[in-house]
From TrEMBL:
One of its GO terms (molecular function) is D-ribulose-phosphate 3-epimerase activity. NCBIfam families: PRK05581.1-4, rpe. It catalyses: D-ribulose 5-phosphate = D-xylulose 5-phosphate. Its EC number is 5.1.3.1. A divalent metal cation binds at residues 34, 36, 67, 176. This is Ribulose-phosphate 3-epimerase. Gene3D superfamilies: Aldolase class I. Pfam families: Ribul_P_3_epim (PF00834). One of its GO terms (biological process) is pentose-phosphate shunt. GO terms for cellular component: cytoplasm. Its cofactor is Mn(2+); Fe(2+); Co(2+); a divalent metal cation. InterPro entries: Aldolase_TIM, Ribul_P_3_epim, Ribul_P_3_epim-like, RibuloseP-bd_barrel.
């Protein structure tokens, strides 16, 4: 059995019952909390910011995997670390000095990830692949939960796996968007290490069992 890591996306939680939903994730087989930060500039939606993340962190018993869908992420790395981030992923498309930002993340003591939009080709990661811990591959256009999975992602996972192996790099492949009981197993077969799931988990009758089902892929 593959040891896939499961990261429920808090974006799909009930914000009026956030403590309850955080405790649900604590009690489940989930590995990380996936925290989506959206600024209304890089993506056409605004999610939540530091106070909400800090409130989640107060109750979370698992690492916070932070996905920054924001412009100028380098301005906020220390504050995200101080708000509880274990992993910080910045978008390739949002960083002019990507290599510098990766080391900024590492210097504050977090794992460094690069997130890529569906249109961004894998080969663009070649010169940083040995510097990072994680690639957060978007399998929907970022900005909203509950969107339809983009099928081209399977081939991108295989291409990324090959790039990682060719460079003898130590990088986790995380897939974000449209993960469910159909796409999840195919993604793991293609080489995914981490599955983010928002809508599929939080719209389920039994979210804990749904997380376990993904974990057992
Ligand atoms: O980054 C995101 C949106 O930009 C979300 O994490 C992603 O869409 C997961 O949601 P779902 O599983 O509902 O598709």
């Amino acid at each position: 059995m593959a040891n896939v890591l499961i990261a429920p996306s808090v974006l799909s939680a009930d914000f009026a019952n956030l403590e309850r939903d955080v405790k649900m994730i604590n009690s489940s087989k989930a590995d990380w909390f996936h925290i989506d930060i959206m600024d209304g500039v890089f993506v056409p939606n605004i999610s939540f910011g530091f106070p909400v993340m800090q409130a989640i962190n107060k109750h979370a018993a698992k690492p916070l995997d932070v996905h920054l869908m924001i412009v100028n992420p380098e301005k906020y790395i220390q504050t995200f670390k101080d708000s509880g981030a274990a992993n910080i992923s910045v978008h390739y498309e949002a960083c002019t000095h990507l290599h510098r930002t990766i080391y900024q993340i590492k210097d504050v003591g977090c794992k460094a990830g690069i997130a890529i939009n569906p249109h961004t080709p894998i080969h663009l990661l070649k010169d940083v692949i040995k510097d990072i811990d994680l690639v957060c591959m978007m399998s929907v256009n970022p900005g909203f939960g509950g969107q339809k999975f983009i099928e081209h992602t399977y081939q991108k996972v295989r291409d990324l796996k090959q790039l990682i192996q060719e460079n003898n790099a130590n990088v986790l492949i995380e897939i974000d968007g449209g993960v469910n009981e159909v796409t999840g197993p195919k993604l793991v077969q293609a080489g995914a290490d981490v599955l983010v799931a928002g809508n599929y988990v939080f719209s389920a009758k039994d979210p804990v069992a749904t997380i376990e089902q993904l974990k057992n892929i």
